[in-house]
Amino acid sequence: MGSGALFIAVFLACLVEAVEALTIVLAAGSSRDWRSAILGVVAGVVSLGVIIAALGPALTAVPLTGLRLVVGGLLLIFGLQWLRKAILRASGMKALHDEQAIFQAEVAAASVAQPGRRGLVGDWYSFTLSFKGVLLEGLEVAFIALTFGANQRNIPLAALAAVAAVVVVAAVGIAVRAPLARVPENTMKFVVGVMLTSFGIFWAAEGAGAQWPGADAALLVVVPAVAVFALVLVGLVRRLDRATNTTEESHVRGAR
């Protein structure tokens, strides 16, 4: 896996998480108190920095074979979760991820929450909402960056890609002061799900002792194969959903 491929893979995956964190922070700041929301962001980033500083060196000390087996297994679990949701959304079985709707829901919840001051934080609700949003989404960013970076023995480049994704989203968010609803997030989630699943399969197999034909070039077959399989599942689930709806409509008509 070359440096360019590593950077792009981590950048795309982290971009999706950064968009979701931005929506939460914007909801907290615009509906309540920007100063408290920003303090929550800072606290979340500092917490993530401590976690990354502790885990980064530890991962690089693990033997590569064992690391690839563990990382591959974790990525496979993580990627399959993303891919399952993406397939359900693409087939119509699950509502599409809508940042604007999520933003409005967060604003509605924030508008009825009771105000409260704690120490230097003027509005505790804004602080905790931003802190949890940044920390939870940031943990996924850190997981992706650390696993990809440690496996390729290039954590600095993976960290740079993650930071670049966060900076890009933050800059656009500050400029527009609105959730990035026009970002094709559902498509990106599908692509990232395919990517994480493919790398999980590839690295877990290598860690278990398998030898891929063509070494890293085998990814050029694994990734498209996973993508095609996922698209086939989308078609099958969509057809099953239509058949189920047709059967239910027939039962309703028969009951009448």
Structural overview:
Helix 3 packs antiparallel against helix 7. This protein has helices spanning 3-31, 34-60, 64-91, 99-112, 124-151, 155-176, 185-207, 219-255. It has eight helices and no strands. The model has no long low-confidence stretch (mean pLDDT 80). It has 256 residues and is mainly α. The chain starts with a helix and ends with a helix. 81% of the residues lie in helices and 0% in strands.
Provide the fold topology.
Elements: H1 3-31, H2 34-60, H3 64-91, H4 99-112, H5 124-151, H6 155-176, H7 185-207, H8 219-255
Helix pairs in contact: 1-2, 1-4, 1-5, 1-6, 1-7, 2-5, 3-5, 3-7, 3-8, 5-6, 7-8
Q: What is the helix tally?
A: 8
Beta strand count: 0
Q: Indicate the structural class.
A: mainly alpha
Integer average pLDDT: 80
The low-pLDDT segments are none
Span between termini: 61 Å
